[in-house]
## 1
Amino acid sequence: MHCYVGIDLGSTTTKAVVMDEEGQPLGRGITNSRSNYDTAAAVAKQEALIDARFTLFRRGLEGTEALRGRVDSFLRDLERHFRHVQYLSQLRDLEETSSRNSRGLRFAGQEKALGRALGEVFGQLRGESAALFEPGARRRSDFFRDIAGSRFMAIAEALCRDAGLSFDLMLNLYDKSIIEVENRPPTGPMQGKFREALENALAAPAAPWARGERPLDRDAVIRPVHAALEIPLEEAYVVGTGYGRVRLPFPKEHIRSEILCHGLGAHIMYEGTRTVLDIGGQDTKAIQVDKDGIVENFQMNDRCAAGTGRYLGYVADEMKMGLHELGPLAMKATKSLRINSTCTVFAGAELRDRLALGDKREDILAGLHRAIILRAMSIISRSGGIRDQFTFTGGVAKNEAAVRELRKLVKENYGDVTININPDSIYTGALGGAAFARRAVQA
Amino acid sequence: MTSKTVAPAGPQREAVKELSMLKQKEMIANNYDLLTSTERHGRKVASTFVPGNLNELLMCFDMLNNLPEINAIQNGMRKLSGDYIQEAEKRGHSEDVCTYVKADLGMVAKGNLAPNGKPLPAPDLLLLSYTGCFTFMKWFELLREQYQCPTVMLHVPYQGDGQKTRNMRDYVVKQIRDEVIPALERVSGVRFDIDRLRGYLRESARAENDFVRVLESAKAKPSPIDSYFGGVYYIGPIFTAFRGTPDATEYYRLLRAEVEERVRRGLGPVTPEGDMKEQKYRLVVEGPPNWTSFREFWKMFYDEGAVVVASSYTKVGGLYDRGFRHDPDHPLESLADYCLGVYTNNNLPQRVELLEQYMDEYQADGLLINSIKSCNSFSAGQLMIMREIERRTGKPSAFIETDLVDPRYFSAANVKNRLESYFQMIDQKRRAVAPAA
Amino acid sequence: MVEMTKTTAAIVERCQALFDDLEFQAARQWKASRPERRVVAYMPIYVPREIIHAAGMLPLGILGAGENLEVIHGDAYYQSYICRIPRSTLELGVTGRLDFVDGFLFPSICDVIRNLSGIWKLLFPKVYVRYFDVPQNFSDGIGGAYYLEELRELRDGLAGISGAEVTDEALRASIAVYNENRRLVREVYSLRAKAPWLAPTTEVYLVMRAGMVLPVEEHNELLRDYLAAVRAEPRPERDNCRIVLNGIFCEQPPLSLIKAIEMSGCYVVDDDFTLIGRWLLEEVPLSGDPLQALASAFLHHSAETSAKYQPDAKQKGQFLIDSVRQNGAEGVIFAAPSFCDPALLDRPMLEGALDRVDVPHIGFKYAENSAQMQPVREQAGTFADSIKLWSAP
């Protein structure tokens, strides 16, 4: 089948969405942005294609008797196994790369010791990897770099201590190698990995979806999955978007401004959208769209940190909390203190002042959340105000305290407006890009 | 600025095109030479402002005209202003205030060098033409303190109700007659001769006619000029030390001929990278340009096929395309009217009117506002202007934020992102309309 | 015997209530009690309130909306690098809090307020809006002639709102009342300068702010009451240093800033809050053409501030130095709103003038809704300490 791809190169993460000919999103992928934009785009796209493949598996399995009522659980397992296979493949790459690098001049005289140590470390990494992908396992992140990195550090440190080897040396080696690995475009045929994952999944004892009155009909599962694997996903058109990139790795006709992509993406998620607010990590956008998702007006705050996610980042640092902990704590506030500083720099000082005066952290936080939303309201105001329906996207949209303040302010100033918030709103730009790709071919 | 033309042109046409640019370069260089050699020729120097620039009057006293705004622009385009601004800030001038002022004060502190590398002289008189901008008052109070020189205030009232009243005119005329002219006489030692002034004003009016034709040429499709990036060069002689001189008249005669030739041949404006080809978007621009990244900024427009057909900045030193001409028959009154009529001395509703008319007369696709951080005179109220123009014309506006000469406030990524989004927005709207039509 | 309602506390409480009221109930009630009544608002720094008064109307001073009004709609009209007073003033306007105001005067203080007059015309076309351009030329035949004509135009414009001619008699009577107001204001300031512990600045400030919203006759009575009350209820003297506060002539800081300065060991012996109350320095004569009298008073006997041109280079900063001397101040605190062109551009020149006569000074910026006072307390406190340490004989 033909598919359309949208790729959004953000400052922290790169997202991709794959859409089918009917305009239905098939799959989404996300990866951490990195120095090589081509690779970041390629990895995100591959992740989206993998996700699309799982959608095809689902479509294939939906009707079957064999997995009635247990398709979700099976697919989750399949994915875990697939990720494990992927992880092992990347580990292999990292091991080979590290090995090669250890033979460099910098490590002269230490190659043997390093070689032994590496073998030991990677052996352990492989050994423990299954546990990382067990059902219910909590991983710090889904990105290879993060998982592998933290485990490598932990294992290597202990090993070096015992072996009397310099940990710095290992660190050096790791740093050099991980960059290489990350910036290599993904290789290796996917088909093989899926089949391997399927085998592993079916072989795993006591899988919940395998239990039932009758023994599992393995063929009834294998056939549809293999059939879904055979469906070709031909990329008919790719549209890229992204902000602040001097050069996007796409030809000019294949680039759309991220404001347009965002507007259209919001429209696709919620057709009744007329106003979009996106509070990202680095900038805040207010976009007005018409009934077809085309942008009519927009305003941005892209210079000043106040009113962007960065503001909350500073607050989290200041309070020595995790970013994701701010919202829940703010929800416990019994009153909202007015925080006047719109400037991030002063917000810190105001915060400290308040704490010194004995104000409660949750009340201060509620005030800080209100401040960031107030700033966003100004930007919206400049773009033309809030029209029904209002779609709120971006990382900050996941923050319940921010959402609470937003609802209050919208009600106070614009009355009853439908507010749409999608947990997957981080893909809005890529979704819009995919839609543009489809329009480019089908229009 | 000479440019290589890619269109086939006979030697005759090439020569005509380059002449106006060469001429302007020569005029500017000559003026700086004069300014930096006062010890040799003994002529006196007055500093004044572009809005309310009474050049013809200064000429009556054989005085040279030094314009600190122009010096700041020159420093901006030569990437010197950043240092000058930081120098001024080190000396206690606030980060929040006008960067022209800081660039000027910094330049003075660091040797006061003109573009020709020689030091500018201390002015013999500060002619504080107080029109269109509050900061002017403080700028010259600061320079007065610096130079300990005579200063004469010419207070030009603001057109608060959108008109020039008789009271305003009388007030300005009286100040010119009773304060400014006597001060100029004292400083220069030359007696005022009103007939001399009439002569210069007559000359000015000639140049003004041609200048307006040049501006209005942008009504053509395609437009032969860019009325913002190209426009800042075209306003040079008429806004600065040359209005009222035969040189300026000659410049505009040449320029008009060149532009009319471009219209005949259906050519677009000259850009640093050759003639502009496709013109996809016709824009009206409100606000001064950014000087420190001028070329880069311009490129973002012509690369996308965007041409500016009218701008408000090209009226900052005088509004000529609504009929005003310097009038030798009423010399002092017309100087007063000139001062009262500069763009930033018009009230906000007048500015909205003017921009709305431009949108219509020049058949623009939209209004773009370049909001300058350090200039409250232009900037305060631009968001209102934006709303009004959108409401009245139904066409979308774009809003970008930069600064005059402080390089810290020009972010190419921000500007490019907003511009591209704007152009694509217009594109998408056109496509949506087209199939329905 | 001091009535309960005329104690210092009661007076200040009343002033605080007026200050806090962003619905302007007092002014609304004044207007509502007679059908022919009209209200004309004005912004800093100076308008001739006498003319408004002579037309039978209430002059209403608008100095922004303070820290207690969240600006939501006002921000749509201004970029981030512009001060807060126009935003909060617009907020008052677009939220209907000024819907009872029939006219609005915008004095020539800076380009932001200048352009705000245009915004107001576009947003509120039914309101009489006038940009009030005071002369920067101070000779009678030139600036004076211009200004006199401007005053006539203003008078006629205001008469248009009130519906009745403004007679010279009415003008003279109004001038007399405002002369009295200025006299009383000067008396309060003079008392505070001599014995600042008797009249803390946080109180004086509120008393002066009341003068922006009350009919002048009531304000005169309030001022008399305040003078009597503070003399009757003296407070103890403290070992504070004496300073002049400069720069707060337009956008006002939160009350906590004034408190912070006082609490850190400073007595404010002069300031430029609500300059309109003391703009004309001497009694305006009641004989002859009243508009001419107001014009001459402006030209020759008015205060100095950053928005006003100083034609004599040697006199630049002298007004401030004179204030320091006359009020026995030991230093100057410059407090300017962020992005304020007049105050910030002027400051280096005023600092230079003070340096030449060895008057110590510090400076900082604030906003209408500044919330962290710790830096202010620290700076002012350090300043006060250093003055006490180093200027002790």
## 2
Amino acid sequence: MSDDHGHHGTIAPFIFSIGAAAMFIGLVMATAGGKDNTGDTGYWFVFFLGLAGLLTGFFMWIQDYWGQDSEEGEDIEVYHDFWGTITTRKFGMWIFLLTEVMVFSTLLSAYLRYRAAVPDYADGEACGELWELCWVPAADIIRSHLIFGVINTFALLLSSLTVVLALYAARNNKPKAATRYLIATFALGTLFLILKAWEWGEMKNGHFWSDHCNVPGTSIADNQDIDHHCIAPKYEDGFWLDTSLEGSTFYITTGTHGAHVFIGLIALGYLIAKANKDGYNEEYHDTIELFGLYWHYVDVVWVFVFPFFYLY
Amino acid sequence: MSLPKDLIFFENPTIWNDFGGDYGGFGGVVWQMFIWSLIVGLLVAVWMIYNLIYFRHADGDPDHKDALKAGVFPHERGNPKIEIAWTIAPLILVSWLTLISLGPLDYMWDVDGQEADITIEVEASQWWWDFGTPICNEEKENPQEWCSTGIYQKPAEFDQCETSKARGCLEIPHGAVIHFRLTSIDVLHAFNFPELGIKQDVVPNLDTLTWLDTKEFNAGHYSIWCAEYCGRDHAIMDADIFITEIA
Amino acid sequence: MNSKSLKILSLGLIMSILLVVSSLPTGDSLPTGIVDDNQVANGCSCHGADPNTGVTINLSNLPERYNSSQTYTLTLNISGGPDALVDGNQGGFFIQANYGTLVSIDNNTWMPEDETHLTHNEEGNNYREWTFNWIAPESDTKVVKFTVYGNSVNGMDGNIGDSWNKGVFSSAGVNAKIEAEEHGELSMPQKLIYAFTVLAVTLSVVVVGNRMVVNDQSFEDVIKSYWKSVYPWLTTTDHKYIGTLYICTGFGFFFIGGILGLLIRWQLFEPRVDGDFLTYEEYNSTFTMHGTTMIFLAAMPIIFGFANYLIPLQIGARDLAFPRLNALSYWLLPTGGFVVYMGYFTGGAGDVGWTGYTPYASGDSSTTPGTDFWVAGQIMLGASSTLTAINFLTTMLRMRAPGVTMMRMPLFSWSIFVTVFLLLLSIPVFTVALILLMADRTFGTLYFDIDAGGDPILWQHLFWYFGHPEVYIVILPAFGVLSEIISTFSRRPIFGYTSMVYAMATIGVISFIVYGHHMFTTGADPLFRFIVMLTTMLVAVPTGIKIFNWLATMTGGSIVLKTPMIFALGTVITFTIGGITGIILASIPVDIALHDGYFVVAHFHYVLVGGTIFAFVGGVYYWYPKMTGKMMNEKLGLLHFALSFIFFNAAFYPMHNVGIEGMPRRYATYDAEFAELNEFITITAFIFGFAQLIFVYNVFYSYKNGEEAGDNPWDGWSLEWATASPPPHNSFTEIPTLKLAEEEDK
């Protein structure tokens, strides 16, 4: 097999794929298999086995990078200067981010299509008994606790800064500072996820309507009393992804974003471990930049998600 | 119908109808499509045969000046004038085909522009068609004479309907403008009158509409078939429509 | 007479009387209908010992599928049997249903007390036709059986000349499942899977056993030696090996998809009731899996395979930019495909059509968990394609050898370059749509839930925004192959290289704005639909340029008619036909009539099989010598082409006719008027399918026995022909520099 630039044969992709397949098979069978097609819970075992396979493949993959301490010989010679201004990996990362733009465009456009089609409850249209015919945005539920969304926004923005500072530190041959900034990024990202999880829990279990909210003879918008949990009859039992379209779009979009943050944190975990072992310095810091690009993208997506779901 | 005859001729009376618009209407579009397809197809075929006859390589033939060499990007070859010509010509052709399609298109979609004589609610479900009682438009400027007599009928009262399809059977008068208001109670279906070239998706959570001017067609027995995959019995989800002369 | 003889005499007399009495017509005729249990069980045996097949019983207006509690008026009609006296007794009947209620509606029939059957009465026995009602049971999942006896009499005394018959009729409820009794518990696809598995296991045993005997090795040693040759394939990151894996996997799935296609054609050989060959549900899964397999598991892998193998060679690079990622892209393919097919092991594969329209796909009536597997597997395949696209774009921009500027890449490379852009921008959208569908099905989200206000058209937008670029993704590389082959075998440069590049780029860009032409009947905004019609028509312009340029390449050339060229030329013909029908469908009024019918099926098979598949089969014949160092057999190639071309056209052309006549697509059965053409299509399709075996044989035969190919058997110009066949380990001994012909002339 080709020996060029250190890419020898590896069983990792094979293992990773088998793991992925097992995860999906386990997930589908656990939720839709069994005698009456409502789920055969024994299959969660297969799911976790698949997850283990996936992680095994992943760790085998990064073995190569673990031992590296310089980027020499890493890149392939470029014969057409214009395209050689950035490294191959950075190039690949930018194109990957282009596909990620498509991912979030799809989620946001599906959401906006529904918001354009369904009348807002506040516009005075007939909304049905439980207000099921109108759109009662997640923003109204979050409004009383908006502080967490704001903290999250600052956390993420700040974490983008810390990642850049880590890169600068490495470039200026300050490996210890680089490591510290990476840890700070990790902490901020974790804060983001913790606050989000807490927020989600509150929304899922909240009661956003009760009898005292029904004031006869008043308009729909007047009945709202967000501070006292009178938001919409359809949210009486909580606001979750299967409650309404508002819920589905909210949780799937913010959830997808959260999943991207989570995966970023896993990658960041690797970077920190590596930083601890060898330290990033002026010879070796491209990985931080690659991660930084991804992390900035995650941040930019949040800059769209936040106003569209928390404020609109 | 013999097999060769079936293969050569296209059997659908409607598509040759020329209702709707200038340039020959719907039938005109079909005819033009047919002729231009033939011309373009023959052009390609004849040109290819011509090439195969006159430019075959024979052993010992010397290579052309711009023959290919491995590792060498070949000479430029082209003729801008000809290439522009065969860019412009197809452009004109497809623009023409688009233009002549507009008339029949407007005719088919200008539903709001005409007044129905009869409105029929159609409900599609897995896997049958349910017709509501036809409602005659008494407010039309010149209502049909038979409007008030209620001669058109719904299913079970109409003895030509097989009672097995009592729900999916309808009689409508010849010489009327019929509007079908389509709703689905479960998944996507499509209301398709193959013989008349009418097709409209029936979408849950959306009211769609299609219409028919029975003056344009002969009286008789027509079938409606579902034309949007809807599950197990999609292939046998049919209904009977009878267009009858009201004397 | 003495007492003894008296006794004998009286005994004899009694016996005779009994004999005579017993030989008389049994009992009276039953003008008042059948009441006796004996007759209920045995029929009108009084009128004849056995049923007579000369009597025909017809029960009309009995629905094939009844609706719950609905009343149906049935007519029982008897024909055959003796001529009847006018106004005399003519016939009688008995009818019983095991579910539902029979009701007499006139004076000719009645239901005896405490019985559940209907029979004739004295009025009614003057007829041979009776009408009555049947009220369907409340449950619509039953299969109701009607037992009928019909008696045809001549009205004369006695039963001489009378005949009767028995008939059994059934009606199933709309939600009844008809057991496929003829094929036990296994569905047809399951049987095929088991059959092939048995075949594969048997072959393996034979091969391993043969090795053990011939080489005198132990079982472990044989397995170890096979593992030694298999393991490198599991771990390779070399683009040539990965390309080979892709091509072989792709053709393997093409074979499976082909069998599914033949199952479709067998089902459509004649009109069939549910369960006759396949159940309707099985048929729906069959066309779903056929489409998904052919596009995602056959066409795209074959394309990626050729791209993998050739792009680095054509641009003068040693491998792709990210070889390990490339391996991951590949391995997600067979594993993802396996997940898609899991449905066959769990009660039925996905049955939502390759387009997966909601709310059928997001609801309960679609196969579960088959549809969930169909969704999950495609998510994996989407990830695979996205990674491939990232890899190729990086490679083609950064790793071109000296001299290989963008406008000096071979046209196959250009076609892959444009394709990769389409992939990048469309596949993620489809993958997200699949995730939303999976979320609806598995986690209860409401994106496509009708009661929650979900919009089915949302899915259509998301799907077709991907779906239309997708079909250009599979045809552009075919265009690339055609350009290579036609130029090489005309022994002259391609005519109009620059316009060819711009044409492909234009097609790529336009492909994103025409997707609405799949939605003309949805009731979408009229302006949107008009713009889509115009742009769809416009896509014919760059496509036409390409066709004319290919023909112009041949004009003035020196044409060598070897198999690759013959396939290429055949492709130009069939693709032109497909392109023309595409323009016909672009006109909205015409599309309204033809949408979702067989005209569309004809169109896309002409462009996908007649375009993509034929082109890439030509590509196999063209590049096989490069990949293996051996030439393929020309005679077999010619035979393969002749049979394929003739029978492809024979099978798919008539679909235009049948479509215009009004036959809708995705139909498990059809109106009898379409039967003759469908029979013809089925037969020719089978021959087309079998003809492909010649190709398979040629591939394997030539590997062993083909002539040595040499570096450049066809006198091509691109860089893959400037290295050995097959190329050495790292493709080029040193990175080549592409020269320019105008420079070389000096």
